[in-house]
Specification:
This protein has 566 residues and is of the alpha+beta class. Among the domains are: 178-302, Uridine Diphospho-n-acetylenolpyruvylglucosamine Reductase, domain 3 (2-Layer Sandwich); 305-419, Alpha-Beta Plaits, CATH 3.30.70.3450. Helix content is 35%, strand content 17%. The chain has helices at residues 20-24, 37-47, 75-85, 94-99, 106-113, 130-143, 196-204, 206-210, 230-235, 243-246, 279-283, 318-330, 344-353, 358-366, 385-401, 410-418, 425-431, 448-460, 491-507, 526-530, 532-545; strands at 90-91, 123-125, 147-150, 167-170, 178-182, 187-190, 216-217, 253-260, 263-266, 292-299, 301-302, 309-315, 338-342, 375-381, 405-406, 434-444, 466-471, 478-488. A hairpin with a 4-residue loop joins strand 5 and strand 6. The chain starts with 19 loop residues before the first helix and ends in a 21-residue tail after the last helix.
């Protein structure tokens, strides 16, 4: 039977081992999520493309990784590292050096697909435990060898790139276990290299593993959940999709243990203390510039998925969606776990992409929910059964007050089904010269519309560019705006355009980052964002913990010299 539409030849095979594509690919090498036929139709229309533009893939990254760049470390230094962790935990081959020096920044992915290699580690080291880490840091500090930490490798801001060579310290190989669940304190002690799914599964199975009475959840579910680690969540101040109820990563950290060039320390296990400014807070979001997180005690939560209440609404306008969200967050009846609102462009494109029947579109239009004005809101409530019923009922009442109609829990269920797989589409888009990326900012309620309009005006000012915007992390005082832009452009155009978006986020009063950390990508804007005095405090802390500047040097957080981006 002949198809009525053209479908590109999407890649369905895992990248060959040892290739650039195997490093650039997101997630499971054998997993793919292709753009729907509606996506293809939309891209053709918006980017003036034809079937011919989808016939030939470009810069697929199929070549084997060849570095031709000898390690700058002496053989005696590599031997010393082998004596600490064992020769089986040391790698100096080209592929390992490139793989563990790369993450998922769009620019990195584009260049890897072209076979371009920027800065790399001289040697890759896989410590077995925190004692290994302590010995490695002591040795590297004495030898002035830079140390860059690699854990999940899902960084999107050059957080894993070793600008000054040295060693890439991979924590996820061995330091990836849940060590203890303390049911009395409702905390879990975990190693930093444990990936999200393994951590959540162990907590869900804590009665069988740790003989607890109840089952637990971590409460932290970023889009990168499957390929990010507990330590990475903390060190980049991550925020999960259920953060509105459970809190951001920084909110669920109880205590931490660090190895630094100045020494090893563990912060205190107390629910609260009045003993001065807390080092525990200073270390969150430090992105490896002060030392290495080797163990963390996290707050955990009771696991009650059977009580989950899902909801979704269509609002007549963006203003109505925002006003309803603010009232929901500032009311005192409790918070939903997942809560999201999409602006008009994201709403309408999303409805098309998910194949909304024409009769539904007609019904919405008849009810006054017009295309490019209406906004989708959705989420869920988690916890005790009485609590979830109460909060879901209150949310529905407020949504109706602002003109929304209920779409039941269908949209939320559909979104949940694919919430971790959306990044896989980037590979297919890149195959045909289409770039997709995101930037996000925190914002207070009184400045939300100014930021939304200002940044969108800049993005849409570039011809043939999509801009999908949503808010997905909510607080009584404000929310975040997540700007997703899609366009055909080369890497030089992309860098210039991305810098322009960051400039506008600053100009219109958004935070420099909301939940992806800073890395080296946002480092040039840090002093303007925080101001000279706050940056001076951070640099003083850096000098104390890392006097020889071996910990992730090269502009991370803007605390030392920032190398040119390209």
């Amino acid at each position: 039977m002949k198809l009525k539409f053209f479908r590109p030849d999407w890649t369905e095979e895992a990248p060959a081992p040892g290739t650039f594509r195997s490093i650039a690919k997101y997630g499971d090498p054998h997993h793919f999520k292709h753009p729907s036929d509606a996506w293809v139709k939309m891209m053709k229309q918006d980017f003036h493309m034809s079937d011919a533009d989808f016939l030939h893939k470009q810069n697929e990254g199929l070549a084997p990784v060849v570095l031709n760049r000898p390690s700058a470390l002496k053989s005696s230094q590599i031997d010393a590292l082998k004596s600490i962790v064992g020769p089986e935990n040391i790698a100096t081959d080209d592929y390992a050096r490139v793989k563990y020096s790369s993450a998922k920044t769009s620019e990195e992915i584009i260049e890897l697909r072209q076979g371009i290699i920027r800065e790399v580690a001289d040697v890759v080291v896989h410590p077995r435990d925190k004692n290994d880490v302590r010995k490695i840091v002591e040795y590297c500090d004495a030898e002035l060898i830079p140390v860059t930490v690699f854990s999940g490798g899902s960084s999107c801001n050059f957080g894993c790139r070793p600008f000054k060579g040295g060693i890439s310290l991979v924590l996820s190989t061995h330091m990836n276990k849940l060590l203890e669940v303390n049911e009395l304190n409702q905390t879990a002690r975990v190693q930093p290299g444990m990936f999200g799914p393994a951590y959540e599964k162990a907590l869900n199975q804590s009665p069988e593993i740790f003989h607890t009475r109840l089952r637990y959840t971590c409460g932290h579910f970023p889009q990168s959940f499957e390929y990010s680690t507990v330590g990475g969540w903390i060190l980049t101040l991550g925020s999960g999709q259920a953060s509105t109820y459970y809190g951001d990563a920084c909110d669920i950290v109880f205590s931490q243990e660090y190895v630094t060039p100045a020494g090893t320390f563990k912060t205190l296990d107390y629910p609260a203390t009045a003993t001065g400014p807390k080092v525990n807070e200073i270390m969150k979001g430090s992105e490896g510039v002060f030392g290495i997180l080797v163990e963390v005690t996290m707050k955990i939560f009771r696991y009650m998925p059977e009580n989950r209440q899902r909801f979704s609404f269509m609002y007549p306008t963006w203003e109505a969606a925002v006003d309803a969200s603010r009232e929901i967050m500032q009311s005192e009846f409790g918070k939903p776990a997942i809560f999201r609102i999409s602006d008009p462009e994201e709403t309408d494109r999303g409805l098309k992409l998910y194949g909304m029947p024409g009769i539904v579109d007609a019904f919405l239009a008849f009810r006054g929910f017009k295309p490019m004005q209406r906004c989708l809101g959705m989420g869920n409530v988690e916890g005790d059964k009485d609590f979830t019923r109460l909060v879901a009922r209150k949310i529905k009442r407020i949504a109706a007050k602002y003109g929304a109609i209920s779409l039941t829990g269908y949209a939320a269920r559909k979104w949940e089904h694919t919430r971790y797989t959306e990044p896989y589409m980037r590979e297919d888009l890149n195959d045909y010269g289409i770039l997709i990326d995101t930037l996000e900012a925190g914002v207070t309620w009184d400045n939300l519309h100014r930021l939304h309009a200002g940044v969108r005006a800049y993005i849409k000012g570039r011809p043939d560019t999509m801009c999908l915007t949503h808010a997905s992390h909510f607080y009584p005082q404000g929310t975040n705006l997540y700007f997703i832009f899609v366009a055909r452009m080369n890497v030089d155009e992309y860098v210039t355009f991305q810098n322009g978006i960051i400039d506008r986020i600053q100009k219109f009063g958004g935070s420099l980052s909301h939940h992806h950390g800073v890395g080296r990508l946002l480092a040039p804007w840090m002093e303007e964002h925080l101001g000279r005095e706050q940056m001076a405090v951070l640099r003083a802390v850096k000098r104390h913990f890392d006097p020889h500047n071996i910990m992730n040097p090269g502009g991370q957080l803007g605390l030392d010299e920032i190398p040119p981006r390209r």
